[in-house]
Amino acid sequence: MPEINKDFIVDGPISSQMISDVLNASTRLDIGAQSIFLGQIRGDIINNQSVTGIEYSVYEEMIEPEMQKIITTITGKYSDIQKIHILHSAGLVKVGEISLLVFVCCGHRAQAFKAVEEIVDLIKLRIPIWKKEFLEDDTHRWPENRL
C-alpha cells in the first residue's frame, strides 16, 4: 500500500521548507522515480491589470473525501506507486509563491510522470477549492479552473 499524506490543506503559500520536508521524508528502497509538480501563482495581465495574488477558499468537509477518491482512482490505475503527497493552499498566496504541490514516488519513471499529471487535472476538476484573483488596482475576479 502506498504512503499517503492525510493533511492536504495548508494555510497560505507552500514554503520551500515544506517542499524540502516532503522530498526528504521517504527512505524506502523500492522507489526509483520521484516526480513533482509545483503550482506557482503567475503574474498574469487581466484587463491591463497585473494579478497580485490569489485567495483560495476551501470547502473543508469535502476535501479529504474527494482527495481519497482521486487517490483511489490513481492507485488503481498505476500499480507502481509507492507514495503520494499532495498539498494545496488555502487563503492568500501572492504572485511567485507556490499554491499546489503534488509529489509521486514509483518504482519507475513512466507511471510517476503520468500519475502526477493526472492528479493535478483531477484536483482542478473535482476538489472544492475556489480562486479569487486580486488585481493591482484592488479589484478581483473569480476565474474558472482550467486544465
Draw up the topology in text.
Layout: E1 3-4, E2 9-11, H1 16-23, E3 33-40, E4 45-46, E5 49-58, H2 60-77, E6 81-94, E7 98-106, H3 109-126, E8 129-135, E9 140-141
Parallel strand pairs: 1-6, 2-6
Antiparallel strand pairs: 3-7, 4-5, 5-6, 5-8, 6-7, 8-9
Helix pairs in contact: 2-3
Question: Which features does this protein show?
Answer:
147 residues, alpha+beta, Aldehyde Oxidoreductase, domain 3, 3 helices, elongated
In short:
It is built from three helices and nine strands, in the order ββαβββαββαββ. It has helices spanning 16-23, 60-77, 109-126; strands at 3-4, 9-11, 33-40, 45-46, 49-58, 81-94, 98-106, 129-135, 140-141. The two termini are 29 Å apart.
Plain-language structure description:
The chain has 147 residues and is of the alpha+beta class. The protein has a single domain, classed as Molybdopterin biosynthesis MoaE subunit (Aldehyde Oxidoreductase, domain 3, Alpha-Beta Complex). The protein contains 3 helices and 9 strands, in the order E-E-H-E-E-E-H-E-E-H-E-E. Helix 2 runs antiparallel to helix 3. The two termini are 29 Å apart. The relative contact order is 0.27. The model has no long low-confidence stretch (mean pLDDT 93).
The overall pLDDT average reads 93
Shape: elongated
CATH fold description: Aldehyde Oxidoreductase, domain 3
Number of domains: 1
CATH superfamily: Molybdopterin biosynthesis MoaE subunit
Number of helices: 3
Helix content: 25-40%
- End-to-end gap: 29 Å
Please identify the structural class as seen in this structure.
Answer: alpha+beta
Strand proportion: 35-45%
Please trace the helix and strand order, writing H or E for each element: EEHEEEHEEHEE
Low-confidence stretches: none
Name given to the CATH architecture? Alpha-Beta Complex
Compute the CA-based radius of gyration: 16 Å
CATH class: Alpha Beta
Q: Give a short account of the largest sheet.
A: 9 strands, mixed
How many extended strands? Answer: 9
